[in-house]
User: What shape does this take?
Amino acid sequence: MMLYRLLLAAIWLVVIPVLADEISPVVKEKAAICMACHGIDGNSSNPKYPSLAGQKSTYLYLQLKDFMQGRRSDPEMSTMAATITDKAEALELAKYFSSLPAFQRDTRAPDAFQPAADKISVGKALYEKTICAMCHGDAFTGMGDVPRVKGQQPLYVMKQLKDFRDGKRTNDGGSMKGALGPLTDEEIESLMHFIAAQ
Ligand code: HEC
Ligand code: HEC
Assistant: This one.
């Protein structure tokens, strides 16, 4: 694990300065504001806020566009999206966050959410039955433009699953609502435990 962490640190040292050169100062300043909620390196440490680091760039861009145009809404995030100047800026923000090293389970804080064995096994059965992997890839690492869910804040994941199910988040074109079907709160919670164990 030590070597792994050193490797991550080395990637940071090499990659970040290069990226910092490519991104315009205006977008850099804006990204720093985003990091107040989404984490200083794009990896959130607050269960309410999703991590953005390592997420699919196209997915991040489409979400920003949806927040900007009102197809997805959230009291905090909609307010923030309104401060994004135009689609070009949204695209640059998406590229920037996508390029940051993704949240790794091994670097989680010791007090982070710990998945429970009994719920993991219920979640695994649902994961197989609902063929999540067909769209999200094995272990939720993301596939094509379908988002990565591995390493995402568990409570955020649970909220999204309930929002899709309850029709509160509809910007997925129906793909998630269709996939989830009529899951109970307990089943959604088990899926969250399974995802957190990936
Ligand atoms: C005050 C806190 C706050 C700030 C600042 C903030 N966000 Fe968010 N953001 C949120 C919340 C809360 C959500 C989740 C909303 C929900 O539950 O659907 C979110 C969701 C997102 C998502 C969707 C992630 C996903 O996995 O679907 C993206 C992309 C995003 N924010 C980008 C940004 C960018 C870029 C900025 C800076 C311009 C920013 N955010 C600033 C609170 C914030
Ligand atoms: C038919 C394809 C498909 C299947 C099957 C599917 N998903 Fe999704 N999922 C998507 C798409 C597409 C999105 C992005 C929607 C959008 O653009 O807003 C998504 C979004 C999500 C999100 C929100 C991610 C975020 O950052 O906000 C979560 C969580 C999620 N899926 C979990 C699951 C789980 C758990 C399963 C299995 C029970 C599953 N998905 C099955 C296509 C699928």
In short: The chain has two domains: 2-102, 112-196. The longest helix spans residues 2-22.
